Amino acid sequence: MTEVEFLAEYDPAAYERPALAVDLVLLGLRDGRLTALLLKREQFPHAGRWGLPGGFVGIDQPIDAAALHVLSEKAGLAGMHLEQLYTFGALDRDPRMRIVSVAYLALLPESAFSEALERSSSLLAATIEVPWSGEAGGPVSALSPKGETLPLAFDHADILAMAILRLRGKLDYSDVGFAFLPEQFTLRQLQDVHEAVLDTTLNKPAFRRRMLDRGWLAPTGLREAGTSFRPAELYRFQRSR
Amino acid sequence: MTEVEFLAEYDPAAYERPALAVDLVLLGLRDGRLTALLLKREQFPHAGRWGLPGGFVGIDQPIDAAALHVLSEKAGLAGMHLEQLYTFGALDRDPRMRIVSVAYLALLPESAFSEALERSSSLLAATIEVPWSGEAGGPVSALSPKGETLPLAFDHADILAMAILRLRGKLDYSDVGFAFLPEQFTLRQLQDVHEAVLDTTLNKPAFRRRMLDRGWLAPTGLREAGTSFRPAELYRFQRSR
DNA sequence: GGAATAGTGTCTGTGAGACACTATTAA
DNA sequence: TTAATAGTGTCTCACAGACACTATTCC
Question: Domain named NrtR DNA-binding winged helix: which ranges (chains A, B) (predicted)?
Answer without folding.
Answer: 177-237
